[in-house]
Design goal:
The protein is α+β, with helices and mostly antiparallel strands. Helices cover 54% and strands 19% of the residues. It has helices spanning 5-16, 22-29, 33-46, 65-102, 115-125, 158-163; strands at residues 49-53, 59-63, 107-111, 133-137, 144-149, 152-157.
Amino acid sequence: MEISEKELAVINQIANNHMPDQRSIATNTGISLGLTNLIIKKLINKGCIKAKQLSSKKIQYLLTPQGFSEKAKKSYNFTVQTISSLKSMREKIQRLIITECQKGITEFIISGDGEVSDVVELAFKNIKNTNFNYSKVNGQDKVVLIVKNNNDKREIDVVSYLSES
C-alpha cells in the first residue's frame, strides 16, 4: 500500500493531536475540508486510521498499527530520498570545484546563508585536493560561489547551477 503526501499529512495530524477534528486537520495541513473528509474516509478504508463515535457531533480518529507502520515507512523513504538528493548536490558541486581548479582557479568564496551554502562548504571539505583555498561569508539572499584567480573573478549562482541537468 502506498500513501500520498496529503494522506501522510492527515496521518501526522492524527498522530500528533490528541483529539483532532476534520476542521483542525484541514487547517493544520492546508488541505480543504472536503478533501480532508475524503482522505480520512480513504485512510479508514485502507485500515490506517479508525473512527470512534464519541457523541452525535464528536468523532475521535485513531491511528491503527498499520497507520503507524505506513507513517514510519513514508518518513523513512523521505529521509533516504533527502539524503540521496543532498549527496547528489554535493557531488555536482565537487565536480564544479574540480573543473574550476583544473582551469587554474585557486581561491573560492562561498557567499550566502542557509542550507545550500552549508552543502557547498561540505563539498569543499570532502575534496582531498589542497591546491585551493575557500572561505565563507554571509549576507546575500542567494548562494553564489565566487571563483578568483589573479584577474579572473566570477560569480556562479549555485542554485541555478544545481538546477541545470
